[in-house]
Design a protein that fits this description.
five-stranded parallel β-sheet, 49% helix, alpha/beta, Rossmann fold, elongated, 172 residues
Length: 172
């Protein structure tokens, strides 16, 4: 990306106070241009597809459809916008649902400063996966559990009766 060209973002957020604080942050951040903001999921999907911003900051708790549904729909339409979650939800269900739907990062609102949000946008544009160390650890732990879940159940030793039945079958 051209170093002089600002990163174009859209903000999907239904809380007017938080939306305004984030928008004000970007007024003083020349490297970022707010191309739009949306308070509903349906408007967000339409706007993101039309505007094709570099990054979309998406809240998960919206009044009409969930942020996960927005992420899923935008991803399925082949839009190249980096979809970055910015939410109050700090649980595995929301985290993994968003990542599986196509989000490239996950930021918890009350755990990130506004300057950390700017850094996360920069990281997303550079191909990173912005999330807190706690979130990254939870993702790694989930991947570590996959082999355990896929492991075949142990075969129990044959009982005397099973061995007898096996021998009888061999004779046939």
């Amino acid at each position: 990306m051209d170093a002089k060209k600002p990163v174009r973002i859209v903000i999907v957020e239904d809380d007017p106070r938080f939306l305004e604080s984030v928008r004000l942050l970007f007024v003083d951040t020349p490297s970022i241009e707010v191309a739009g903001s949306y308070t509903t999921g349906k408007d967000a999907i339409k706007g993101i597809i039309e505007k094709r911003p570099d990054v979309a900051l998406i809240d998960l708790g919206l009044p009409d459809i969930s942020g996960v549904e927005i992420i899923k729909e935008i991803s399925e339409k082949g839009c190249n916008t980096e979809l970055l979650v910015l939410t109050v939800y700090n649980d595995d269900e929301h985290l993994f649902s968003a990542l599986k739907a196509g989000a490239i990062g996950y930021i918890v609102k009350n755990e990130a400063s506004l300057s950390e949000i700017v850094s996360a946008i920069d990281e997303a544009v550079k191909g990173g996966a912005p999330m807190s160390m706690d979130m990254a650890r939870r993702v790694l732990n989930e991947f570590r559990e996959i082999p355990k879940k896929l492991k075949k159940p142990e075969i129990k030793a044959l009982t005397e009766r099973d061995r007898g039945a096996r021998i009888s079958l061999k004779r046939l």
